[in-house]
Structure formats: C-alpha cells, structure tokens
Write the structure tokens for this entry.
Amino acid sequence: MSDQKMNLTLKIWRQSGPTAKGALKTYELKGVSEHQSFLEMIDQLNDELVRKGEEQVAFESDCREGICGACGCMVNGQAHGPDKGITLCQLHMRTFSDGDTIVIEPFRAKAFPVIRDLVVDRRALDRIMMAGGYVTVRTGQAPDAHAVPIPQEKAEKAMDAAACIGCGACVASCKNASAMLFLSAKASQYAHLPQGQPERKDRAMRMIMTHDLLGFGNCTNESECQSACPKEISVKNISLLNRDYARATVTLENVSG
Amino acid sequence: MTPQEKTLQSNIPEGAIHEKWDKHRFNMKLVNPANKRKYSVIIVGTGLAGASAAASMGELGYRVKAFTLLDSPRRAHSIAAQGGINAAKNYQNDGDSIYRLFYDTVKGGDFRAREANVYRLAQVSNEIIDQCVAQGVPFAREYGGYLGNRSFGGAQVSRTFYARGQTGQQLLLGAYSALMRQVAAKTVEMHPRTEMLDVIVEDGVARGIITRNLVTGEIEAHTADAVVLATGGYARLWYLSTNAMGCNVTAAWRAHRKGAFFANPCMAQIHPTCIPVGLHKQSKLTLMSESLRNDGRVWVPKKEGDKRPANQIPEDERDYYLERRYPAFGNLVPRDVASRAAQVVCNEGRGVGETGQAVYLDFAEAIGRVGKATITAKYGNLFDMYQRITDEDPYTVPMRIFPALHYTMGGLWVDYNLMSNLPGLFVLGEANFSDHGANRLGASALMQGLADGYFVIPYTIAGYLAGVKPGQVGPDAAVSKEGIKTSEAHFKTLVEMNGKAPVDDFHRELGQVMWDHCGMARNAEGLKKAKEMIPEIRERFWKESRVLGNGREFNQALEYAGRVADFMELGELAVDDALNRTESCGCHFREESQTEEGEAKRDDENFTYVAAWEWKGEGKPWELHKEQLDFEEVKPSTRSYK
C-alpha cells in the first residue's frame, strides 16, 4: 500500500465560548497521510498545536465508525465533507490532494448554538424525540415477539428510516435549518410498523409542533438534507409525515402532552 | 466469619438453578407504589444498561437522575455493536433452550462466570426480544413476517437476533426512546455532558456522586438513595481498541478508590475480526462484525513469508487453519480461540499484508455458492465500511483482519443483586464483571446490558431501597462538600500540568505496554516488566504532560487528562491480576499454562475464583479477595471446539 503524504492549508472556525465572537483561523499542516481519517488529520493538528502551546481545536467525535452521530462539521461548505453517504469520521484523506485548502466550520443553525469551536449543542433533537419519538410501552408489557408478524418489506422500510444517527447534518445543510428529515425518519420508522399505529397521528402532530417551537425552520422541499445525510435517509419520509400531519389536523380533537 | 468473607457474599438464592430468580423475586421486599416517589436513584451512563434501567425505574415511579458525558444518551457506545443479540427463543426449532444458552455462556466464559447470574441472563433473554419488538425495533424478518436469526461464534444453534449490521444502534435507540419518554414525563432528570468524578460514601454506604459539567466546568454533588453505574468497559486502557474515543474507566475507578472491589481486571476480550493496525498514527481500530465468520473463511499461506497477492496463491497452498484445527466449529470458534490462532500463524511468519500482522477473511467461496447479491444483502454495509478504510474491494480481494481489544469482562465486583460490596452502589452491563467469565460470546453483551437494565435492577434495587430511609444525605451535607473539594483539587492538579507533551503521548505509551505484555498472550517475565514500566510512565505523565486552558470551560484536553490518569492506575492493577492468575482461561492466556496443542490450560484446583481487588491507598499494594465459584450444573471440562 503506497502512502501519499500531503501538505494542507486549513481554515478552521475558532470560537472560545458560546457568547464569544468566532473567526476562521488558518493553519498549515504538513505530512498528512492519505490513509488517515479526516478526524485523525485534526488530531495531528491538535497534537502539533499543544506542543507549540496553543489550545487544541475542539471538535466532537466518539465511535469513529460512522454510527454514533457525534461527529460532523461543514467541510468546504458540505456537511460531513464531499463524499456521499458517510460521516466525517469515515472520510479519509485520500479524498484530498496535496496543496488543498480545506475550510472547516461547525454545523450552523439557530437551534444548534456553538459551544466551542466546532462543537455545537444539539439537545433540540432530543427535545423532538421527547415529544413523541417513542412507542408508549412500559417495560414488561410486551406480548411475545411473534404475536404480530410484520411483512419483511415493512420491516425493511422501517429499518431504512431507523438508520438515522441524529447527527444534525440535515439541519446544517438546509437553508431553513429545518429538522424535518430527522423527525420524519423517526416518525416513519413507527408509521411502517404495527406497533407505531395507535399513536401515529398524535406523534406527527406533537413532534412537528415541538420542532417549530424550537426554532427549526420549515421544509421547502429542496432535498439538500437528503444529499447531506450520511445514512442516505430519503425525503420520502417527509412526505409520509406530512400526510400523517395533514390527517392529524383534520381528525385529532386534542393533542395529548 | 471474618469481615473479608462477609464482604464477598455473592448472595445467590437457594434452590434449583431454574427456580432461583423466581423465588428471589418473590422473597425480595417491595416498595409500594406511593412510596416509590420518595426514593431517588442516580444512574450514570446511558448505554443499553443505563438507558434501559433509567427508563424502567422512571416508569415505576422512582425519582431518577441520569448522567452521560455525551451530548445525548443516543450516542453511548452500545450503539456501535453490529452483530446481534442472543435469546433462547428457539424460533428456529434447532434445539435451543434457556438451559442451552446458559450452558453455552458458562462454557464460553471458560468456567469463570457465576452460574446463577448466567442462568438468570438466559431466562430473561426472551423478554428482551419481546420488549424491543414492542418498542418498534426493526429486527430482520423472514418473508413470512417472523423474526430471522443467525448463528454466532461459540454456538451451534441460530439464536442471534439482528437489525442489519446495526443491532446495537437499534436496541440503544429503543432504550433511548423509552428514556426520552420518561424525561418528558419528568420521572427522569437528564444530565447530558456531565461526567462523574467520584462517589459520595458515608459510613460505607453510597449516597451520591460528584460530577463535572463538561460545558461550564462546574463541579457539583448529586445525592440519592442508590447509585447505579452503567459506565461501560475499559478497553481503551490498551489505547488502540474498537471502543469509542470517550470510553473510559473513571466512574468505575473512582468507585474502586472509594472501596468498591475491582474484579478480574485482566480479563479483556480481543476480538478476532478487526481491520489491522496500519502504519500511520491511528486513533482507534474498527471492528468487522463476527457475523462475517458465518460466510467468510479465514486463511493464511501455508508457506512462511509468502508475499504473493491472495489471488495468486493456489487453493492447495492455503491453510484454512480454523477449519483444520477445529473441524466441529470451524470458522465459528469463540473469539478467544480465533484470536489466538491468528496470532499463532502470524508468529510463524505466515501473516499477510504489509505489516505481516493480519490474516485473510475470504468470501470468494460464499459468493460462488450464494451469489454476490446475497452477500451484499447480508453484509453490504460492512463491506462498504471496509472498503472506505482500506481502499480495497472485499468482493474481489479477501479482507485482511487481525484481533483487537474490544470488550472487558472484568469490572466492578457485584453480587447476585448487581450490588457492589459498597451498599447502595449497583453496577450494570460491561462495567460489572458478572456474566461472561473469562470470555464473552458474540451477541451476549447487548443481551446482558438490557437484561440488567430492563429486567434485573428494577427488582433488586427495590429489595435494597425497601430497607433504607430515603433522603439521608443531601448535596449540602459535609460529605458532599468534602467530595466537591477533593475533585476540585484533583482537577486543579490536572489543569496545572505544565510539561510539553500532549496527554495522548502517555496514553499511547501505556497502551503499547499493555498490548505487548498484557495482551493476547502473557507471561510472568513480560508482566513483571510491565509492572515496572507503568509507574514510570505514570510519573512522566504527571510531570511532562501539558493541559492548556482552564477548568471552568469546555476543555477536552482536561477531560481526557482526567481519564488517562485513571487508566494509569488501572493498568497496574490489570497487570497484577494477570500475574496472580498463573492459569490460562478464556481470553487470559498465560504462556506458562498451555496444552501440548497450544490451547489454554485452566487450573481449576487453584483458580476457580473471582479475583476481587481492594484499593488500599496510593502507592500501596491492592488486597486480593476471592469469591469461590461453584459449578453445580455445568461441570468444568476442557473447552473443546474440535
């Protein structure tokens, strides 16, 4: 396996705290291996910064396998970088070339305030989940798992939607900072399954109302979210949710909660 | 009875193995519904065990406070489990049963787990699947609409339920959704980005925790009537592992320093199918699901130093060494056996790839048999993941794999009720030592996490709380204030470290010593060397590392320094434990104790016990307490997968 080394110019958003003023700062980084992951490239920068006595760039990551949803930045204006269907931790430096300039910024949205540098507060996504991202079943209430057969096709569709990792790339990529892809993925996971039926309309209503209250914008069908999504969640989920929402506005008398 | 014996009572209920849990549930005291709200419970960690426990106890009416160092409970490392979750449903009609799952797990753990715990685990396994399906977890299904299963290492039945290669994610999101429902219902108060730094202990009883808010740096005391740790494992002690960057031992270690015994710290699982270490400075390793061994065949060239590309090595010059050595289980031998066998062929100079530290996992035969489409349907996402990391196409070139640290069987000692030797301190999931003995079987970690959280702790904690008066220690008590002071002082020392090197240097160095001397194979000489090296690295860590910024802000370097400081101490204990256990068992392979064929040789006469270590103070040797293990059902035998 060959190993091309490259020299890069990095322009990284530095912001010392939620209320501090931020700015892009330029760094020259040399000798980056093409086999390094993007985050290992930032590790390398941080290593050099600390040795020089400068504070490291704050960024978030945990599993580094593309499943936890912790990582994510705008790389040259694209959420999770230029490659399709992956998270930032799965992006490898072989995508870039020697001499490239890379601009790295946090996910930006009104509902995602910056905590420091590239780290943002995404608790608003948890609040949407609290509003209805569940099936109401207490521990111990469940019937036998085989009590209700579920057609394979339905289960697969539910799984396609359930693959969402809650990273927030959809929000950061949307010009309206809408979280409709995120919330529709959860709602349609349940909408495809018999377990999700009893609360279906109520769920759609409550999640959307909460979404709007939190400062996320409306969906205007540009599908930027779908192209940025590392799990390639489809905007069809939004259509399904909108239908459920429309039905709910017509038929629901009271929204619980 | 000496106090020492008293502290290690496992509290296994009387009766036949299949009646113990039922009888115990009946005999335990209950907290009546109206009284539950008077009791508060702290849960640290929101992975499978912590989230399921917090949700279930919130539903019951306890006042729960849940803590995670991540920004959301949904990101806990349980999410990365790919392969599946075991249950004894016998939906395949292939001879499975609760007893067989129990038997396989005890045998798989090489007879170093507690029988009664394992039996209970097998008993509740079926309820877990029911619960998850009811929550809307989209498990894989057959055309008829019923659940599909696959087989996993160490079992000859198909009992593993799965959701593509994302089973951990789907189960965690199920538990997380149940948890968020309780947060909305205000039965659970959620504290994200909050790290536990210490346990508050008064008169030998756990009364709360000290935490640090990772955004503001504020150090606080939280008190409760019981504290539950579900803080995961410590595989990052070895630096390179499949664990997430944030996985650490701090919560468990701080509890240990406050008196909780640490059991079997040397027992760490090295998973056979990971992407090998490369030549650049890596931050972690990536697992390729064990399920791949259902269809992939593991081989190396027969000839030493054969550098030809895989496709130019003819069939008769390949050594399918697992199939050759273990004809009954073939490529599906348990993880410890598969890992060691890989190391053996690499030591013989038959390893592949540029480092020579890898073996092939080859799908050519399976693709020929069932077609590429079927293989894609089963493992597509794993193949993609492999290609992205290595830049090689596993459909045409065999995968290169090598063992890597993955899971730790050791952890805080707990009794049958999952309570540590400190009353009021419970430990769930990977953070405790209880169910996997010396080796964990595939698809059993998810099972244990959810068993502990959904179906064990809600009962056993009631048994404890029913006997205590609620609200005895508050956050303003002297002991709480003292705890805050101690943690503040600890963090002050950390933030004032003013050397030149990043903390990472010392963590890496520690990990290398652990891998070299306390990794896949261990011997007295190497372990003694490690025992000398670790304190020396620790000393340099405190003298030469540098943490910039201050303690009153979001400071990732500072968080990391605190965690590495604790790994430095744990490393020494793990080495002590490995030195003490002169037998080989499961993942703990002492080179001095092997059969003529190179298999692990147990010493049941001297080591049929759990080694539980007591912290005696800085710079003092740990004290060993033993819990003898009785095998009434499954008689210890030489594990054979031949």
User: Anything to note?
Assistant: The beta strands of chain A are 5-14, 23-33, 74-75, 78-79, 101-105, 114-116, 119-120. The longest helix of chain A spans residues 236-251.
